[in-house]
């Protein structure tokens, strides 16, 4: 992401405490973010939003008459591109859950750590600016065809690699998962155009992680409850120390599926319809115990079921913060045992049918 792209991004600050607004504006300006606007009046904030939507909104929650949650509800209905970072003194978990459910990209407690806030603003501007360019490019060039212009493919790859980098995984995870999904799709008899679309769409499966704090994504040994259960049940990572994320942080991580769906809803082309579907459903489980919707069996789109197996395998095989890769034998054993539980049995069987090709492409 270049400095010019940052300068194109507009940041809006809404807080009923003028001191908070002035401090935030001053810090952003010192860091080179000049395109800012602000207000201490939530009613005026809505009027400003109706006139000109920002790329990033820094939003207080506890305000008189119109709360930050009210503004979030409005934003959810009006703008799929604006990234909302909540800044609040409220420690109520219900408020945090509601804000995240309403589509907030992040939730920061006051007093704000401005060094960390700067990272979140940069990430959010990157998402918003790329999505704006991507939507313009797709509408101009892609049309109804499945094939995607090279320029659009490059933007897709940069977006997916950004999410991958933030997750502490710079080893080609998105490319591998896309390739594994394509190989699996071949076993279902999909044609070349469908396979190309699947491979590109799957690479955006974790794009919603751009909206998650680095302090959570890069926490050594961090594992969601459902991942913890699977790995512990099968001895997935040997003797190393693993731990569940606290529930509030787990909720933030799980929210990346809905955020990913939101980020990808910029176009109705086949590519983005498929990518949006995969982003939302690749953490659903065949037995109904997944997230975010608790779908089960064939309720989960086939592309999401294929992505789940491909992503699960590469997660087990990859290094990460505080974890080392599983052996191939252990990976195969885990996939086989989770057949019919976490994963669609047919998708696991199809993955095993192309096992030799998977291994040849693993690097």
UniProtKB/TrEMBL annotation:
One GO MF annotation is: cyclic-guanylate-specific phosphodiesterase activity
Cite the Response regulatory domain residue spans from the record.
10-125
Keywords noted in UniProt: Hydrolase, Phosphoprotein
Domain HD-GYP intervals: 148-363
Q: Does the keyword Hydrolase apply?
A: yes
Keyword Transmembrane tagged:
no
**GO aspect biological process, one term:** phosphorelay signal transduction system
Q: Which domain of life is it from?
A: Bacteria
* EC number(s) on file: 3.1.4.52
Q: Which PANTHER family match?
A: CYCLIC DI-GMP PHOSPHODIESTERASE TM_0186 (PTHR45228:SF1), CYCLIC DI-GMP PHOSPHODIESTERASE TM_0186-RELATED (PTHR45228)
Q: What is this protein called?
A: Cyclic di-GMP phosphodiesterase response regulator RpfG
């Amino acid at each position: 992401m270049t400095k010019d792209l940052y300068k194109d991004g507009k940041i809006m600050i809404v807080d009923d405490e003028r001191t908070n607004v002035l401090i935030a504006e001053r810090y952003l300006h010192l860091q080179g973010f000049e395109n800012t606007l602000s207000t201490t009046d939530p009613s005026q904030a809505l009027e400003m939003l109706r006139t000109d939507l920002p790329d990033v909104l820094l939003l207080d929650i506890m305000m008189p008459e119109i709360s930050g949650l009210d503004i979030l509800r409005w934003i959810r209905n009006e703008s799929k591109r604006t990234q909302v970072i909540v800044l609040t003194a409220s420690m109520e978990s219900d408020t945090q859950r509601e804000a995240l459910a309403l589509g907030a990209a992040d939730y920061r407690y006051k007093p704000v750590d401005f060094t960390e806030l700067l990272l979140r603003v940069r990430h959010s501007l990157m998402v918003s600016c790329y999505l704006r360019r991507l939507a313009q490019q797709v509408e101009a060039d892609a049309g109804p065809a499945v094939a995607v212009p090279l320029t659009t493919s490059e933007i897709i790859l940069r977006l997916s690699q950004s999410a991958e980098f933030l997750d502490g995984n710079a080893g080609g995870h998105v490319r591998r998962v896309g390739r594994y999904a394509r190989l699996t799709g071949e076993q279902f008899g999909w044609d070349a155009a469908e396979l190309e679309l699947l491979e590109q769409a799957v690479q955006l499966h974790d794009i919603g992680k751009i909206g998650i704090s680095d302090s959570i994504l890069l926490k050594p040994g961090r594992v969601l409850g459902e991942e913890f259960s699977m790995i512990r049940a099968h001895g997935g990572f040997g003797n190393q120390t693993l731990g569940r994320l606290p529930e509030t942080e787990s909720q933030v991580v799980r929210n990346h599926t809905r955020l990913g769906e939101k980020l990808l809803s910029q176009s109705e082309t086949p590519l983005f319809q498929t990518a949006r579907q995969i982003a939302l459903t690749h953490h659903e489980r065949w037995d109904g115990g997944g997230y975010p919707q608790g779908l089960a069996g064939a309720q989960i789109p086939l592309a999401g079921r294929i992505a789940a197996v491909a992503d699960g395998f590469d997660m087990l095989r990859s290094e990460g913060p505080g974890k080392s890769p599983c052996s191939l034998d252990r990976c195969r054993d885990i996939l086989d045992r989770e057949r019919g539980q976490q994963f669609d049995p047919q998708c696991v069987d199809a993955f095993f049918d192309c096992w030799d090709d998977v291994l040849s492409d693993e690097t």
